[in-house]
Design brief:
Largest sheet: 5 strands, antiparallel
Radius of gyration: 36 Å
Strand order of the largest sheet: 8-9-15-12-11
Number of strands: 15
Strand content: 15-25%
Number of helices: 17
């Protein structure tokens, strides 16, 4: 039978029938046209729920009776006791009415605090079940926030694996705005399909939300598209305004979100919600969201999904940062490719002016358009570092980094020379050569020990021997431990040698 026939058979409004179905008291079948078919058993269940609700039973108590967790006789006995208490309360209320009337009070002279009491009315029980909209605005907001985060993570991970995008540099250079736009576009397309086929997105499903028509059927593609485009434009616009470096734009974006939450809190429809749409979720007036123990698992699932999306981006960052060649047998060409790609990942390909060659020297970077980037420095007379490679039976087994300089004359009054200790070059060389033998943690620990020892370190572990020696004269530390400024009136010289050798 149709829902209209079920209404006639039970005397319940359509909203009540849909509400009791949403609460899990019965599950009607669906015909080929997608509409529900209500059976005699469904009608019988509705009549029982209606009767028990009129007797004052809560939905949870009716669920327990339906599941057989308590007997009807015991439940009725407890309800009789409750009704007796209510009868006494009603008698007390009747006496209170007589007392107020006897006092001759009118509306303006009534001492409400003296007589105030709460009276229960059986007719109000079913009436409260008619309204299925019991949404907390934060659940809708955080559901959409999780969806956007998931798509952002997937797009970022794809860029990291295929284009070796540096997540940290992307955030520093304003790439977050472009990423948000891309995620909004992907989210809009995916949400249209998800609402049409399942009625929910990942964020909504985790927080127990579902969007259906009033008759319980799912939205059509056109309805889902109209809804999704509107809400994505609103939600995305508020987020993008908040990212602009203009305080008024940030306040406008925040105001838009607050307005939407305020509308939902007061159960007012938003402009993207079509007529006949229905939000369904798992809380009731009698049992709020946090009173249902299962909903704590929903929140935990939301937090886990959000953390997993961040973990995906962090994992993608480390995968993108790894040298492309980490096999057991490494050639000089592969080491050079590792080194150049790791430096490009750290600083950006567009910012590199010099590139290591297989001969161990550095050359100017030439762009595709034929231009050459030349780094102009006051101390451009400093020589380039030099790499040397040692070959063994299993391929490259030794890499040495050497950098030395001697000015021969003291620094002039109008000359200012600054150099940076080549820790980044050394670290990049370590990762480019040693990741086939040591893990990330071991390499980071060796690098930290090298910096702590001010560049002078000798270490042998896991078949790898590292020797580092750094000497600087005529310089003093400037700003931080890796920048050195030349002292006037003194001769500047330095010697840096860092070597790695596989001993096994």
């Amino acid at each position: 039978m149709t829902i209209k026939e079920a209404e006639e058979r039970t005397g319940l409004a359509r909203a009540n029938i849909r509400y009791y179905e949403d609460q899990g008291f019965f599950s009607p079948t669906r015909g080929e046209n997608g509409y529900r078919n209500y059976s005699e058993e469904d009608v019988s269940t509705l009549l029982k729920v209606k009767l028990l609700r009129q007797l004052g039973f809560s939905l949870e108590e009716i669920h327990e009776l339906q599941r057989g967790e308590q007997s009807l006789g015991a439940a009725l006995e407890r309800r009789e006791d409750g009704l007796e208490r209510e009868r006494r309360e009603l008698d007390q209320a009747a006496r209170l009415c007589r007392d107020i009337r006897a006092d001759g009070a009118d509306f303006y002279t009534l001492d409400a605090r003296r007589y105030l009491d709460r009276l229960a009315r059986e007719e109000a029980v079913i009436e409260r079940d008619r309204d299925p909209v019991r949404l907390f605005p934060w659940r809708r907001y955080f559901a959409r926030t999780l969806d956007l985060q998931l798509y952002s993570a997937l797009i970022t991970f794809a860029l990291q694996l295929n284009l070796r995008i540096n997540l940290l540099r992307m955030q520093e250079e304003g790439g977050t705005l472009l990423l948000t736009l891309a995620a909004l576009a992907v989210m809009a397309g995916a949400e249209i399909l998800m609402l049409h086929f399942w009625g929910a997105t990942p964020g909504k499903a985790l927080l127990g939300l579902k969007i259906l028509r009033e008759d319980g059927s799912r939205l059509s593609l056109a309805e889902a598209a109209a809804r999704t485009v509107s809400v994505t434009a609103f939600f995305g616009g508020s987020l993008l305004l908040g990212q602009l470096p203009v305080p008024l734009c940030a306040l406008a974006g925040l105001a838009m979100l607050i307005w939407a939450c305020w509308q939902v809190y007061h159960e007012r429809p938003l402009f993207w919600e079509g007529e006949g749409e229905l939000y369904l979720e798992g809380s009731t007036r009698e049992r709020a969201f946090w009173e249902n123990g299962r909903n704590y698992f929903r929140v935990a699932g939301w937090l886990a999904a959000f953390a997993a999306s961040i973990g995906l981006m962090v994992g993608g960052h480390f995968l993108a940062a790894r040298p492309p060649h980490t096999g057991d047998s490494l050639t000089a060409e592969e080491f050079v490719d590792n080194y150049n790609q790791c430096m490009a990942f750290a600083y950006g390909e567009e910012n590199l002016s010099r590139r290591l060659t297989v001969e161990g020297t550095f050359e100017d970077v030439e762009r595709d358009d034929g231009t050459v980037i030349i780094q102009i420095m006051e101390n451009d007379q400093l020589p380039d570092p030099v790499f040397s490679f040692g070959q063994g039976d299993g391929g490259l087994n030794q890499v040495t980094f050497t950098w030395e300089y001697d000015s021969g004359v003291p620094l002039g009054d109008h000359q200012i020379y600054m150099i940076s200790i080549p820790y980044q070059k050394v670290y990049t060389a370590m990762r480019s050569f040693l990741l086939r033998r040591l893990g990330e943690r071991e390499i980071n620990a060796l690098y930290e020990a090298l910096v702590k020892a001010e560049g002078n370190l000798h270490n042998v572990q896991d078949g790898v021997e590292i020797h580092s020696e750094m000497r600087f004269s005529g310089y003093y530390v400037f700003d931080d431990s890796s920048s050195l400024l030349a002292e006037k009136g003194q001769v500047q010289s330095f010697f840096v040698e860092f070597s790695m050798e596989l001993t096994e």
